[in-house]
Amino acid sequence: MVRIWMNHWFSTAYNIIGMLRQDEPDFYVIGTNESPYAGYRLKCDEFYTEPSLSEEDYVRFALDFCKAHEIHVFMPRRRLMAISRHKAEFEALGVKVMIDDYAMVEMLNCKTRAYEALADTGLAIPEYEIVTNAAAFKAAYERLSAKYKQICFKFERDEGGKSYRLIDNTRKGYTALFKKQSTRMTFDDAYAALQEVESFPPMIVMPYLPDDEISADCLYTANGLIVLPRIKNPTRVERISFDPDIIRLCETFHRHCPLQMPFNIQFKYLDGVPYFLEVNTRMSGGIQMACLAAGVNIPNIAVNRLIGIEKPWTIDRREKRITHVEVPLVVSEDNA
Q1: Residue 268 covered by a domain
Q2: CB distance 252 to 214 below 8 Å
Q3: Is the pLDDT of residue 336 over 60?
Q4: Which residues are paired to 29 by β-bridges?
Q5: CATH number at residue 90
Q6: Per-residue DSSP letters for 105-140?
Q7: Same domain (yes/no): 114, 251
Q8: 128-145: per-residue pLDDT in tens?
Q9: Exposed (0-12), middle (13-18) or buried (19+): which is 322, by Cβ within 10 Å?
Q10: Rounded to an integer, what distance in angstroms lies between the CA atom of residue 236 and that of residue 214?
């Protein structure tokens, strides 16, 4: 029996666990989350509530958890960087960790360092400026807005795009009622917010790329690189399309950054050019959609690779449209 631990994942873990178990009756999944009501607990063989801890204390907690629960494969989502930095300590316990080595992970999770490392590889990097105070933000905005129609920004180190904002100076008034506002700010509002502090962590200011967004789920195997590109849009219907140019760009990236674990590359188009945006050194939140459409089970293949088994795979390259629907789940019942 292979004992797998998934720590504090996104809700998509519900789908990933189902994919892990396909044709694998000996995969025993243990889940943890800070919330005792995480939906994926329903798919786990065991589930525990995690404590809220500092980075170093969390690593110690994770090491102790692996020992106490005899974990064979650790699929981390929380504290990825710290776990990668301490990967050797987990391996010393006999635990296979689904994260690449720290030097590569740390570089790719710093967007400007990743851009610098990949600048001469043939990947198109969008123009950008790094700022750490309000005055520099204003100057960067003025320079870039003289060349591009719209500007956006987010902090250099960010997960899930939480800090991403599009500068929209028309977001006020009647027409704004018809726009989704959660990621939009006027320049004046953004500038005022940043003026509240003397300095802030490095922020990237860059042109907004308005055309198609590509999210490519990837995994390197002995039989080659799996690349499953999804074309995303504001609706829930995404398109799986194996554009040769996107496949080539993913292969170019992997030649320069030979990640061994699942990863996700994001591109965005502007005027017909696919610009490299970022890499997630983990599985994406929509990996189950790409895998279903392409007939390739990346989570299952990846875990088997960790334990020394290379599973065969083929890709259904027919273009497909795919969506997902929310299903209600009862995660607890109070005793009457």
Answers
A1: yes
A2: no
A3: no
A4: 4
A5: 3.40.50.720
A6: HHHHTSHHHHHHHHTTTT-B----EEESSHHHHHHH
A7: yes
A8: 999 999 999 999 999 999
A9: middle
A10: 14
Same domain, 23 and 51: yes
Indicate the residue type of 162: K
Q: Are 75 and 17 in contact (CB under 8 A)?
A: no
| Count of the separate structural domains present in the chain | 3
pLDDT in tens, 153-168: 999 887 667 889 999 9
SS3 state at 149: coil
Task: At 197, list the tokens.
Answer: 């502090």
Examine the pLDDT at 13 and tell me if it is beyond 60. Answer: yes
Least confident of 193-197, 200-204, 232-236, 281-285: 232-236
Distances (CA, A) of 35 to 51, 52, 175: 9, 10, 39
- Looking at the predicted structure, is the pLDDT value of residue 180 above 70? no
2 pLDDT above the threshold of 90: yes
Transcribe 286-322 into DSSP letters: THHHHHHHHT--HHHHHHHHHTT---------S-EEE
pTM, to two decimals: 0.90
Instruction: Count the neighbouring beta carbons within 10 Å of the beta carbon of residue 187.
Output: 16
Same domain? 161 vs 220: no
Where b means 16+ CB within 10 Å and e means fewer, 100-115 reads: bebebbebbbebeebb
Q: Which residue has the tokens 């129609």?
A: 149
Last residue of a domain, one of 181, 207, 233: 207
Q: What is the mean pLDDT of the chain?
A: 93
**Could you tell me the sign of the dihedral formed by the alpha carbons of 56, 59, 63, 69, in that order?**
positive
User: Taking residues 144-151, what's their average pLDDT?
Assistant: 95
Amino acid at 251: E
What is the extent of the structural domain holding 31?
2-99
Asked if residue 229 and residue 180 are part of one domain, the reply reads no
> Does 247 lie in the same domain as 112?
yes
